[in-house]
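Q: What would this chain look like folded?
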Amino acid sequence: MARFRRKMWITLLLFLLFVFGVMMGLKTLRPEGVGFVDGVGLELLPHLRYRADPSNRKSNIPGAEKPAESGTLPRNSKMEGLHSVTRVPTSDENLDHFPAVNYDLHAFYYSWYGNQQFDGKYIHWNHPLVPHWDPKIASSYPKGRHNPPEDISSNFYPELGAYSSRDPAVLNAHMKQFRAAAIGVVALSWYPPGLFDENGESTEGLVPAILEAAHKYQLKVTFHIEPYEGRENSLYNNLKYIIDKYGSHPAFYRRKTHTGRNLPMFYIYDSYLTSPGSWANLFSKSGSNSVRNTQYDALFIALIVEEKHKNEIIQAGFDGMYTYFATNGFSHGSSHQNWQTIKDFCDGNNLMFIPSVGPGYIDTSIRAWNNHNTRNRVNGKYYETAFSTALLVRPEIITITSFNEWHEGTQIEKAVPKKSSQIVYLDYLPHKPGIYLELSRKWAEKFRKEKEQWLI
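A: My prediction, written as structure tokens:
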């Protein structure tokens, strides 16, 4: 009898441990009640947004001189929208075995990586450890920089290694992965000529090569405008620069509006750093420097972080809002439970709502103190939950955060198992390196089919 009781208690204990483990796993899928007042707070944003402080912008070209022109870009007579005709590029790559792309699925892309072979040094892979803003807490965590190629500033390790964004083979591999995932639009992180984040170098000169690589796989490229000093005053000229230089390229993304116009689209990261009144000078029809109804008019999408940003976005004259952050519960905008309310608000004010989905989040390789914002991938379940929630609100576009933001662990790019004497990287096991491309492809098709039903 005593042996029977012992077995019963052991069985009960194992069952309770199993239930506890399942509950903790589910919590990572959809954390409830987590917001700015629960230890995350707006004070954390400058540290999660290490590229956003305009005072840290650097220029390696006096007067922000423009890079040399790369020749005449090919012209495309077809304006691009989801239902428009796509000109098939001349390519050695047979695209028949790839899925059809979904131009309503965009993924944020970063071209700021460098290595010894192509750049003479490592760029971004050697990102420094960001100290906590509280010196007492900061003193408890390590300092210094990462030392590539074995020690990189990511919790995962790329299948392509510590690559350079300037490597043509890397660009081709990335665009091939985009196409395999059926993601139609590359949302390219962009600074004006000569400007760059505090850990990088100017990447504007790469845009022609990115456009060409995207065109090879019938992809489109839109621009994710990063914060830089005086952005609200110089954005008109920078929009003019982008559209004049790249607007005729067949890979340049344009979207057909409800009024029949084919307009470029620009995501404006950290738009809330600028007052609505300043943005209104550019985006309202009566603004002092308005782009509306000019050849530089476009769809301008603001970042929503706090709830109050909804009304500010209207006042500023934006055309819509996106959520960017892949951490469910981190901000009002990134919390899945708020998406329907935000979508209803946008519908009532003739704005686009573009939710951002992500495979997970972990940035402790650069912010060792930020483990409470980690979101476990749960073997792809976190990603699929985000997609499923996004489809419930019937958005026009869904964005993916991200294709290759390795520092914050939001990448869907292929990753491989790797370990050294001091580091064991996370990986996608038991799945293959391309699991998140496969899941993206699955949901791109589901999004397309459901959208067809919404339009009936």
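The longest strand covers residues 102-109.
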